[in-house]
């Protein structure tokens, strides 16, 4: 099949079909130029490093999916939300579960409803299109303007899930067998795919993506992140909290290291309870674990390990 804006060989020079095709190509070219000119420069609600901004803009330029990996709680999902807001593009989200199938992102045929309606004599059964439920990819493909499509936590699905989307994400089209139609993207969406690295993704899928790993924020970047969420926080409390947080993260052997989102929850509690900075620096042997540490440490083994190591460290000084 000839691409929509490919050369029209042996076609009449001025027919309604050719004129319509020419208008379509002009509109498509306009939106492609507009999308290519877009640049993500971060936002007031999201602290994006220079290399992360470069990664987003590289995906825009290459028209390839942006695969984002990083520890849980490093802002991978929020990135898609902020990119959409900053570029003025609608956001469509597909949150992946262990039971999610690739077909669900395209469409699903509701055969059960059609059978029920046929038994009730409903006239809708004559048109099978009435029982096609559009998935998130279909919605992104038929959007009137370029959009941001988030495929969140792709590594939760089975190993074949990424391969089942290769052609659709590469060619931006898919076939609906029930209605015998081909759905093509009006405008190529910016696809942002997140992964917590629970399982490796297929090489064929990786070749079609631009990859970026969000490193865990250093103390300086973390301070900026906190100040975005709590602009009025006292610097003394912030310094004490960050010192305790990074000391905790540095403990070797933790089953689950606290993430950025858990730090923000902890700070919210410290502010709500009006905990003074000195309480976070206490040398009292009975207060080895920081106040409200349940926001940071999520199992008893980690609590015990932290208590033991800090106790030994203080006694060796």
UniProtKB/TrEMBL annotation:
Single GO molecular function: ATP binding
Pfam families: AAA
Extent of the signal sequence: none
SUPFAM superfamilies: P-loop containing nucleoside triphosphate hydrolases
InterPro entries with a match to the protein in the record: AAA+_ATPase (IPR003593), ATPase_AAA_core (IPR003959), CbbQ/NirQ/NorQ/GpvN (IPR050764), P-loop_NTPase (IPR027417)
Domain named AAA+ ATPase: residues: 62-220
Identification of the protein by name: ATPase, AAA family protein
Organism: Burkholderia mallei (strain ATCC 23344)
